[in-house]
Prior knowledge:
This protein has helices at 14-39, 48-56, 58-63, 114-129, 138-141, 144-172, 189-193, and strands at 80-88, 101-105, 175-184, 205-207. The protein is of the alpha+beta class. It folds into two domains: 14-63; 80-207, no CATH class. Helix 1 (14-39) crosses helix 2 (48-56).
Amino acid sequence: xxxxxxxxxxxxxAWAQIGLLTAFxxxxxxxxxxxxxxxxxxxxxTGPEFAWLGETMKPYSQWLxxxxxxxxxxxxxxxxxxxxxxxxxxxxxxxxxxxxRKQMLPDRNEHWPRLLYHRYLMLSEFYTNRFAPRQVTEExxxxxxxxxxxxxxxxxxxxxxxxxxASLNHSRGEDLIELRRIERSLPDSQxxxxxxxxxxxxxxxxxxxxxxxxxxxxxxxxxxxTKTSEPIKK
Length: 234
């Protein structure tokens, strides 16, 4: 009589299952840590739970370079931001017909190839995201925690601004008069379909204030199309 061999059980040991599950959870939290911290961020502070998760998973996410925080590209894009630079001639003489020389960062007509345009685009978004108001309201001055955070953010923002001014002055050979943050919003469906707005309509552009007291204002010096599209007639 031939003895039949017992079929070997085909299963994963318990210790291997626990190890694989642990590795999966660590990687899963590493992928989610930065987007969750980005999602919970506000002008005042970041959610403490997600801030702790981000700092805990920081070595792992930096090692695999998964700490970009793309927030999974939400389907509704927000407004775009540009930087408007106004320069004066190096001799200090400002012509009456040209109060200042203006340059937009980025400028798709000047910055080519697209990689250069993209770098200036990321610079303008980075500059806007690091913004800290020069003045705050009297009510916020009573908040000690906010004022401490604002002081650090303002110091970093000032350093970034000084570095940009020095770089622009060196590359252009001119003195920078003013640096303005520009916001370009997207038209909604009613503005496009009923009113005939285009993406470059000047009414979608505004200058962001450097303080918390003032609001948005319409820029009088932007070189934008002056003629808007006519509403679509039914």
